[in-house]
Amino acid sequence: MANKVSISHALSVLHSKKHHKLIDVFNTVCRMSTQIRRDWYVEALTGDIDASKEYIFIVRTANPSICCLSKMILEEAGYMHRSTVSQCLNELADMGIVSYNPSYLGWEIIGMEDAFNKADSETSPGGYMELRKLFFSREFYEMNVTLKKIVYYCSILMSTKGFKSKNSFIINLKKENPEWTSFLNTDNIYYIKSLITRLIDDSNLLRKLEQKQYAHRSIKNKNRFLFILKPLEKLKLFIKDSPLSAQDKLNSLISKHKELYSYIAGLRDKLEQPARSRATDSVICALVEALRYLNRSTVELVVDSVFTRIHNGYVSHPSAYIAKILQKHAAYKKLLL
After folding, report:
1. I need a surface site. Which of 24, 86, 90, 149 has the fewest CB within 10 A?
2. How far is CA 327 from the centre of its chain?
3. What secondary structure letter does DSSP report for 46?
4. Is 68 helix (H, G, I), strand (E, B) or coil?
5. Prediction pTM value
């Protein structure tokens, strides 16, 4: 499960006006993805090799349909609606953010490796944004779209190098065409400032403001605002300023995939020592994460391969080893086609 997303993707989704739930679906797809090292042999079978990228992010699915991916998202986030998820996935595909990759039997998040590139400035599209607990709650899903975009953009800014070094960021409405007016789809900077300050200073975060209150005011350059948010205690409290921890990840996987977890844990209990001790929670977590949406025969093949390896010694990088098994399995299936 990924705990970061590319800022360039996050900004693209933020600026999209196609669907007000696009942010939620994008976050969930990224969270479900797994980073794997590219297998040049597997890609050579399709004749489509991109040697410039060492890693890709994949959500493995049983088949290449949007419907299959949509069903998986609904299992992750039961508060979403099927039609909404399908529409947003189609939009993400049209935007070139997600695409089915037959070489790895899953949906690839295109360009996700940009998350590991260094940003040139505080608001550069390079770098990554941490996925926060708030993003995967019903509270965020049902949030007013304007407030949601403000919170999301603040989260992007709070993930930049500039914020982490200074613990503050500047909201600059003085310059022409600032980022805020673009994604909020309004030139009324009085309205924008009121929304931002209310988010930070008012305990009633979901209270609506009428834009017409400020419509009569003329906008002049000398009246444009520039202010620094420091400290950000209320904003941090609202965003729940902590990325998903490893324990959160494990608990989430176990609660949502109890049957698979019980099956794998049961096989572990049958192992003899010292192999049983080598099959740690991190190994079980990696297995559940990689196999949660795959068919029974694939699950049995991978679990058997991993436990056989553990019987002979430690698996130092479980996720990478499992990914290698799945890639070989995908290559074998292609040879049979």
Report:
1. 90
2. 23
3. T
4. helix
5. 0.68
